Structure formats: C-alpha cells, structure tokens
Hints:
The complex is a heterodimer.
Chain A: H1 3-10, H2 12-43, H3 48-60, H4 63-81, H5 93-117, H6 121-129, H7 134-164, H8 177-185, H9 189-218, H10 222-247, E1 252-258, H11 261-276, E2 280-287, H12 289-297, E3 303-307, H13 308-315, H14 324-339, E4 342-350, E5 353-358, H15 359-365, H16 370-376, E6 381-384, H17 392-401, E7 407-410, H18 413-422, E8 427-431, H19 436-439, E9 442-444, E10 456-461, H20 469-475, H21 484-495, H22 503-512
Parallel strand pairs in A: 1-2, 6-7, 6-8
Antiparallel strand pairs in A: 3-10, 4-10, 5-8, 5-9
Chain B: E1 7-14, E2 24-31, E3 36-40, H1 47-52, E4 62-67, E5 70-71, H2 77-82, E6 84-87, H3 99-103, H4 105-109, H5 114-127, H6 144-156, E7 162-166, H7 174-191, E8 194-198, H8 202-208, E9 211-216, E10 219-224, H9 226-231, H10 236-262
Parallel strand pairs in B: 3-8, 3-9, 6-7, 7-8
Antiparallel strand pairs in B: 1-2, 1-4, 4-5, 9-10
Amino acid sequence: xxxxxxxxxxxxxxxxxxxxxxxxxxxxxxxxxxxxxxxxxxxxxxxxxxxxxxxxxxxxxxxxxxxxxxxxxxxxxxxxxxxxxxxxxxxxxxxxxxxxxxxxxxxxxxxxxxxxxxxxxxxxxxxxxxxxxxxxxxxxxxxxxxxxxxxxxxxxxxxxxxxxxxxxxxxxxxxxxxxxxxxxxxxxxxxxxxxxxxxxxxxxxxxxxxxxxxxxxxxxxxxxxxxxxxxxxxxxxxxxxxxxxxxxxxxxxxxxxxxxxxxxxxxxxxxxxxxxxxxxxxxxxxxxxxxxxxxxxxxxxxxxxxxxxxxxxxxxxxxxxxxxxxxxxxxxxxxxxxxxxxxxxxxxxxxxxxxxxxxxxxxxxxxxxxxxxxxxxxxxxxxxxxxxxxxxxxxxxxxxxxxxxxxxxxxxxxxxxxxxxxxxxxxxxxxxxxxxxxxxxxxxxxxxxxxxxxxxxxxxxxxxxxxxxxxxxxxxxxxxxxxxxxxxxxxxxxxxxxxxxxxxxxxxxxxxxxxxxxx
Amino acid sequence: xxxxxxxxxxxxxxxxxxxxxxxxxxxxxxxxxxxxxxxxxxxxxxxxxxxxxxxxxxxxxxxxxxxxxxxxxxxxxxxxxxxxxxxxxxxxxxxxxxxxxxxxxxxxxxxxxxxxxxxxxxxxxxxxxxxxxxxxxxxxxxxxxxxxxxxxxxxxxxxxxxxxxxxxxxxxxxxxxxxxxxxxxxxxxxxxxxxxxxxxxxxxxxxxxxxxxxxxxxxxxxxxxxxxxxxxxxxxxxxxxxxxxxxxxxxxxxxxxxxxxxxxxx
Lengths: 519, 266
C-alpha cells in the first residue's frame, strides 16, 4: 500500500473517534436544548418566532468564526471562575462542542416547530374535544404527528454537524479536519482526500441510518426505528473504543503546533522525544498564533515552540528593541512572572520574518535592502501570510522604512510562495528558516535599520508541567541542537512538490541531524 | 318545562376577541332530555358558537350553561368534555392512531382497562355498522363516510348522555349523508341520547330533528318542531328557509308520480 496512505490510515482510529465523539456529543446536547424549547413553544406559540430567529442568526455566522468566538468567551469565563477554583478549558473539545451545538439547533428547532404547526387544526380541536389536557395533546397527538418532520431536521443537523466538525482542528480539537488542515498546509493531497472521504462517508452512513429511523416513524413501524438506533449506538461505541483504550492510561501530554510545516515537524520531534521518555502524547495542530500561547498559559497545551520576537511584541506587548540575549533573558523572566510559563530554552535556530523577492526581480529593480524596496514599493504588491499585516513587526518595518505598497494580499503560507512565483505578489513576508527560500531562489532583503526583532525558536512549557522534572529532562537535549540549515532542509522536505515527506518523517530525519549540545 | 332540562342556556352571550358584535347575543333556551335538536342558520349566525359553549370549547362572556341543573362553569373543562360526545365537520380522526385507538381514546383518558376498551370498540363498530376487522386500520385507509362513522363511534365511546355534532356530514356525498343521518337518528333513539346537530342543510334538519332552532345574527329567530315552523314560520326570512325544501319536495313528488305513471309504457 502507498506509504502516505498507510500513514494517514494509521491516524484514522484517533481522528475518527474524536470526530464521532465531538459530533455525537454536540448533537445530543443540541437535542437536549432544542426539544424542551419545542415543548415550551407548543404551549406558547409566541415563543416560536424569537427561538427560530435566534437559531437562524447563529446559522449566519461562519462555522470557523463561531468556533473561534467561543475561545475568548470561554477564556473570559475561565478568568471569572478561576477564584472559585473551577478550571474551564478554553481550547479543544469545549469550544468546538458549543459551536457545533449552536449550529445544530436551527434544523432541529425549525423542523420540529414546522411539524407542529403543520398539524391539521381539526385534529387539534378533536384532541381538545375528546377531553385531552394540553400536556396530553402534546405528547399523544402533536409530538407523534410532528415526529417525522422533526426527525428529518435531526437528520439534517447530524449531516451538518459531522461536516462542520472538521473545522474543530484550528481550535485545538482533533477531528477528521486534522487530515484536511495538515494536508492543505503541507500540500499532502492524500491527507486532504482521506479527510474528505472519511468525513463524507461518516456523514452519509449516519444520514442513511437516520433515514431508516425516519421512515420507521413515518410508517409507525417500530423495527426499523430500533434497528437504526441500535446501529448508531454500536457505531458510536466502536468509533470511541480506541479513545477509551488510550484514555485508560491517562496523563497524556498535549503538544501544540501552529499552522505551518516547521511547527508540525517540531511537534513530531518533541512527541517522539517524550514518548521515548515514557509519556503518552497527543497533538493540537493548526492553532492560531495567539491561541497557541493562551492555550499554553491555560495548560490546555503542555508544550509548543514559539519565537522570541513574536512573544516579545505580541504576547508581552513590548515595543522597545533589545539585543538578542537581553530579550531572551527578559522573556524568560516576564513569561514566568506573568503567565507561569517556562522557557526551556532555544532550539538553536531562528525563524524570523523576512521580506523576500525573486532573485532576478530584485536584481532588475536593484533592491538588496528594505531601504531600496521603499523607493519602489508604490508600484509593488506585498504578499503576506494571514497574520503578518496585523502584527506589530509589520508596523515597525513599515514605519522604519516608510514602506507603502500599491496593494497587500494575504495568503496561507504555502500559497504565499506560489503567489510570488506566479507574479501575483512582488515581495512576500517569508520566514528565514523556510526551505523554499533556497529552493525557489529567493533573496532575503537586508534589514539595515534593525527593525525586525530576533525570532529564536524557544520551547515553552505550561504552568502545569513547569515542575515535571522527567518532562523537562526529555526536552532538554533538544536545546541548541538544530541548525537553521537542518531546519530549512526539514521544512523543504515537507513543503516541496516532489518526493514529499510527512512531518513525522521529516522529524525523524531531523532527529538524526541533531548536533550534540554545545557546552 | 322543569329543571329536568338536559341542557339550559341562561342569557348566554359569546364575544370573540376583537369582534364588534357578539356571536351569540343573550340567548336563553332549554333542551329536554332525549331531544334531537337541529341548530340551523347561515354562516356566522352563531349556531356553532352556541354549540361549543356546551362542552366549554368556548366559555360565554356572560350568562351560564347548565347541564342536568348544574352550572358547567364550576366543572373542570377537561372532565366535562370526556362526558360529552363531539363530532366534527372536519372529522378530526387522529391520523397516527388505529381505528380502535381512535375510538378508545376517551375511555383510555378516563382510565378504563384495556379489556374494557377493546370490548367497547367491538360494541361501537357494531353500532356504527362497520366490520370488526377495521380495528387495526388507519383513518387514511377508510372512505369519508367510514371515517365519520368512526368519528361518531369515538364520540360515543365513553357512554355520554349528550352528543354534539358540528356539521358532521358536510363533506360527504348525498347518499352517504343520508345513510349516516338515519344511522345517527337510530343510535339517538337506541341510546336515549340528547343530541344537538349544527347544520346549514334545512332538509337534513327537518328529516332528522324533533325540534329546529333557527339562529340569525346571534339571536334565536325561530324555535319549534319542523311541522309547526313550516306552517307558522313567524317571519319572512324563516319562511324562506323552509320554503326551499318544501318546493323541492313538491317538485320531487310530482316527478316521482310522473315516473310511476310513465313506468309501464317505458
């Protein structure tokens, strides 16, 4: 079997189990909320409009945005409850669950209410006239008559939820979306296809089973209903079994990774180190830059790699420029004091923002320094990654050199390099450890005014693990062990089009190139 | 008449929310036990509104309704409805319940045992002249006339003394209508019911009822046995009402006579 497919399928029990757990829990919670609302609105029809309006409003928020919104909400709630010693995870399962639950409400509510409103008025009159109370009317007449329509709504909700659950990956919840997000990032199309096929297959089989249940209800036959519910329960149990087996061992270390190849590789590298030291690991991949740090501070993530300049300007909100050593010392102190976060140390290379151009384009314009670029910027387009233009570094560079581009465009990192090749962008916000700088024959423009801070790759550890000696000892040998050349090669082996490696394979290669710790 | 009246309306007024005029305007009537009464009148005359005060589907804005001498406003509406049979224009069978379950619904609400319920279903299928194997069918599998027979059986299931019927045969073809009307009259006799039927079909009212109450604009315009009202209608509008079936009957009997006369030569 194809090696990459085999590797993808190796992750399937975990991803599928998490996906099923998340979708089933969201659907169950949505039912638990929606059905009492339906009962209440059957007695008080005036409630129907506001209920459906609210659910429709939620539906207009894009799924990914809804998940992202729950993150700050839960953080605020966590801060509020922390004096009571109640810990709320703001990342991972909970925000994904809440967002999907809200998403599933509309089809359930709308159909159930439509089902009740669609009942022949003569039938409702008859219920009254034969001497039913309003409760009896609901349970004996309205509920069974609305059930087939309501069931169709539950079916729609199930299909939506399973599809939307793939969006849980960026908020740190493992799902079949891990295939899609990782695959998209590393251009591993086998992964993307496996993710799409798996989630589609899951959605279709659940839809088919619920379809049988719906038909059973419509035809008032109990056997198909029981059959399909039993099949669903067995399916959920089978999908969750691998999680249960794994969960039984407990004490799993969570390794975070932002949304680019280097982070995936380093996460794998740390994972194999920790596993060798006897830890169980799970990974939260594709986290947004700010989310990753917050998650660490909240101990939702135990360890990840971040970059000194990012921490200095974005997290600690400092604007002064310090020398590299001074900044790292200040960082370690301030992160510990303010967040309880431990800086284990630097990996030995830097991944700085750098403005890069195609070599012959730079030559023809006579640009070698950002100061030269400033003279031509008015006619050029800047391609940036998704966050660069919002970051203080960009403002600092723009101010220092008086940069004003004709246009700026944002891309996912992989597509940013593509845009430079295709001429859609003239300059990009590259990363200095990126293998594509050499491979694509790009030149990095000199920062003669020192506007871009240092970006040493630092290993950060959560407050929860700060005193775990075995944990820290497993990570220590990685400090100062990776050269920027080794990191570029590893990144390129994942990013290139031909002979691609998975992040795990690249991490294995990188582990072999680790230099002995410098004393 | 004495207090033995099965149903007594005392100055009953019904007003719908937002309506300028009352639907029923200060109506007083007494209906004796065992009477078969037809409430007739045009749409909006108040006949259905008056009917619905009897089982408290509407509560009067003023006045009182008594059953067997007791004010029904003091009785729980749900309990009251279980003691009174009600048959609808729209039939209103529960589509998700079998024929047997439909018929047994009120006995079930009253807490009868399963055995009592199924025994009653068998009796009632006989009473409305439907085969026993209809028990397990669903309403959608029956014809309109069969459905309304089930509707009548359902209304009678808990052995009520009073049967209310709101344009029960309105949606049926003439032959079925006629069959069901006679069946109703027979059941009325056999069970000793007090029956009130709302209809806008004068012919039906005259053929079935002992007494016809004509309503107009919420008031009682005429009240009496069919033959009396035909001969002494009271006013021109009521006379016009009775005129239609009479002229139809005369034409029909002339036609029938001619048919008999022409018969042998045909």
